[in-house]
Structures are given as structure tokens and as C-alpha cells.
Amino acid sequence: MRFISYAQNSEDVLLWRALGHVDKGFYIDVGANDPVEHSVTKAFYDAGWRGISIEPLPSFHAAFLEQRPRDVNLAIAAGAANGELTLYDVPAVRGWASPEQSVAELHRSEGHEVAELTVPVRTLASVCEEHVKGDIHFLKIDVEGFEGEVLHGMDFQRWRPWILVIEATLPNSRALNHGAWEHLVVDQGYRYAWFDGLNRYYVAEEHAGLLAHLDIQPNVFDDFIPHHLDDAWRQIDALREQAGKGWEQAATMERQAIELDTLHQQAARRAQELEQEAAAARARHEQSVARLEAQGAQLRQQLRDSELHAQEAELQAQTLSAQLHESAAWGKDLEARLVATLNSSSWRLTAPLRFIARRGDNSPAAIVRRKAKGAARRSLRWLTTREALRRAVLPLVMRSPKLQAFVAQTLAAAKQATAPEGVAAGGPAVPAALRELPQSARDALEQLRRAYEPNHE
């Protein structure tokens, strides 16, 4: 697996080359500064190690508390004795905080703003007394010119870190300053191993076999990459993944666009169909309206016809009413005449003849009588058609009322045989309401009329 380096000058690559075989080792980082950026211990912490992180600046210490829960994170400065000291920080530049006033003056001379704060100080020996229970695999010191004070506070006879990594130049300079403190480690049984341009590496004599791992700078065979490059590659991979997802989304969107276009076409076809259906519905509606209007006109015409029929019926009713009134008047007149006739002597004298006529006897004698009567009537009709005979006979008949009645009856009977249906011989038309009377009744009525009109013929 490729090693990811977080350190400023690849210090963790050299340490991992020498100590990567140790499982869950232990470290002390004096001047830890940041849990990720330029951190010598970040790669080891990710590999399962733990240790002590010493960082006096409150903002950096808070980050260690959050990101390094397995570590002992101390907000102190390490020094030659326990107590307090003034720390000079350059807020604009990460990692330039130093307890050396001369370093602070150098930063001010370069135009940097310097902030002063008081922090507690403890010796490394007291920190190890409290928190170290086994081997210390490496000790890293980076305190911007205060390295000698830190080394004075360490008991190398009791606690023996396998490897020491100590910053050996003046702050922000290539000038070496290890001459002031190197004897504090060499005299304690540590051998110089490597200088990387910023730090000097020392190995405890009892672990001299590690010197062979620290005799050359980090190189391609260490199979490492800086974490910035790893982050960049991760971002590239993420971008590629996002790009892949983007292409997938683009393909999905293209498919959706095709589907939407298909749906649009279907919707357009459906809209056209609906429009056609609506046009057909409008046509049917117009036809229905026209049909209803025609039916309405027909109904209005029927209503007008009904009104005309009603008017005609009313006229017919009026006509019928007039006929009824006429029939009533005729009936009253007929009743008066009938009463007068029934009271007359001629009616009583002709009763036997009427009785015989009503019986309609079919005996041989009656048949002979009817034939004789028919012959008499025919003879009478023949006589009445002769003008000369009429002029000769009529004066004689007019002298006898009875003879007048007999002749009138005989003439009426003769004329009745040739008279049309519903009309009495020689008389006015019978009202429509009385035309259903039997012929015998109508004959009697005609005889009565003629009885009141003796001079008609």
C-alpha cells in the first residue's frame, strides 16, 4: 500500500522506512502545530499508532482534541523546568510561534505582526512520568529555536526514544544551530544518522540497526506520495466519478428527453384526436341544435295547427249547438202540430189504415192489399202528372176537406217512395239530429205537416 506523507520535509517517510514494521507504536510530538498540515505523526496515527501531542497555541490544541482522540493532547510548552513562559506567535504564518524573544524580534524586523501570550511550561521528563508506559519509538522536537531548553528537561537515562528528529536550523533560515544542543543527545548515547536540510536524525545506541534505514533521503523506492497529491488524485477520482455520474445523468437525461419527446408526440397526437373529437362533438351538437330547432318549429307548427283545429272544433261545436237549438225548435213545433193532429177527426178516421200499415202483415191477403195499394199509388202518381186531369179534378177536391186530406195522404205516400233519404216528400229537409228516426215515423211527421198545409198541391 502506498504511503501518504503529511510532513513538511518528508520526515514521516524516513521514520516509516525505519519503524513501519512496528505495530501500534508510540510517539511524542513537541511543537505538534496542526493534526494534519505538516504533521510528522498523522500517517502513524492513521496506521493505528498513538502518542503525546504538545501544542501550546489554543486554536491548534482544539484541533488535536477533535481529530486525535487516542492521543494525549497537552496545551503546554516543553522546557527546562516547570513554570510559565511568554510565547511569541506570528498569526499570519503557521508554525512560527516561538518562546525565544530574539526570534520574535527577527519576525518583527521582517514586517510580521507578533502576538504575545503566556503559556504553562512542563519538562518532558514530567510529561513522560505521567503518560508514558512503554517504549517511545520516536521523539520529534520543532520549537523554533527553543530545542536546547526542551532537551534540558528530558531524562534520556530513564526514557529512551528509539529515534530523535530535531529541527537544526534557525527559524525560517538555512543557518544551522544544532551546535548549541547536540551534545545533550550525543552524550546520552545517541548516534547521528541523517540531516535532511531541516532536521537532524539520531538513533539510540541500543537500536543502532535502524541507522541503515536513515542513510539516504526519501526516494521513489519508498513508494510514497505527498498527501496534497493524494488529495488531488482523490479529487480527480471524485471528479471522474462525478463526471461518470454526470455522463450517466446526461445519458439518463437524454433518454428522458427522448421519452419526453415521445410523450410530447403522443400528447400532440392525443391533442389532435381530442380536437377532432371536439370538432365532431361540435358538429353533433350543431346537428342536434338544428334538429331540435326543426323539431321546435314542427312543434310550433303543430301547436298552430292544433289551435286551428281547436278553432274548427269550436266552430263545429257552435254549429252543433245551433243544430241542437234548431232541432229543439223543430221538435217544439212538431210537438204542437202532433198534439193538434192527434186531436183532429181526420187522424182518428185514418187510424185503422195506419194500424194496418204498421203491422206489415205478410199474409197472402195483406200482400194482395199492398200490391193493390201500390197500384193505386202508381195510378195516383199517373193521374197527378196529367195537367188537364188535375185542373178538372182539383176544384172538386177543394170543396171537401176530407177529400183534400185523403188526396194529400195518397200523394205523400206516392212521393215518399221516390223521395231521397232524410227528406220528407214535398217538405223541408229534416234536421240532422232527427234523420235516424224510422221511416214510418218520418212518414207520420210528413203526413202531419201536410195536414197543416192542405193547399200545397
Explain this structure to me?
54% of the residues lie in helices and 12% in strands. With 457 residues, it is of the alpha/beta class. The protein has three domains: 3-222, Rossmann fold (3-Layer(aba) Sandwich); 226-330; 345-452, no CATH class. It has a seven-stranded mixed β-sheet with strand order 4-3-2-8-9-11-10, covered by helices on one side. It has a three-stranded mixed β-sheet with strand order 5-7-6. The protein has a two-stranded parallel sheet with strand order 1-12. The N and C termini lie far apart (161 Å).
Short précis:
The chain has helices spanning 11-19, 42-46, 58-67, 101-109, 124-131, 147-152, 183-186, 227-342, 345-349, 351-359, 364-384, 387-398, 401-418, 439-452, and strands at 3-5, 26-30, 50-54, 72-74, 77-78, 83-89, 115-122, 138-141, 163-167, 190-195, 199-204, 224-226.
What's the helix and strand layout?
Elements: E1 3-5, H1 11-19, E2 26-30, H2 42-46, E3 50-54, H3 58-67, E4 72-74, E5 77-78, E6 83-89, H4 101-109, E7 115-122, H5 124-131, E8 138-141, H6 147-152, E9 163-167, H7 183-186, E10 190-195, E11 199-204, E12 224-226, H8 227-342, H9 345-349, H10 351-359, H11 364-384, H12 387-398, H13 401-418, H14 439-452
Parallel strand pairs: 1-12, 2-3, 2-8, 3-4, 5-7, 8-9
Antiparallel strand pairs: 6-7, 9-11, 10-11
Helix pairs in contact: 8-14, 11-13, 13-14
The neighbouring-strand order within the major sheet is 4-3-2-8-9-11-10
Beta-strand percentage? 5-15%
> What characterizes the major β-sheet?
7 strands, mixed
**Relative helix content:** 40-55%
Number of strands: 12
Tell me the name of the CATH class of the largest domain. Answer: Alpha Beta
Question: Can you tell me the residue ranges where pLDDT is under 50 for at least 5 consecutive residues?
Answer: 417-427
Mean pLDDT: 80
The ordered string of helix (H) and strand (E) elements is EHEHEHEEEHEHEHEHEEEHHHHHHH
Rg: 77 Å
Distance between the termini: 161 Å
Number of helical segments with 4 or more residues: 14
Which descriptor suits the 3D outline?
rod-shaped
Instruction: Give the second-level CATH assignment, the architecture of the largest domain.
Output: 3-Layer(aba) Sandwich
- What is the CATH topology assignment of the largest domain? Rossmann fold
| Total domain modules | 3
Structural class call reads alpha/beta
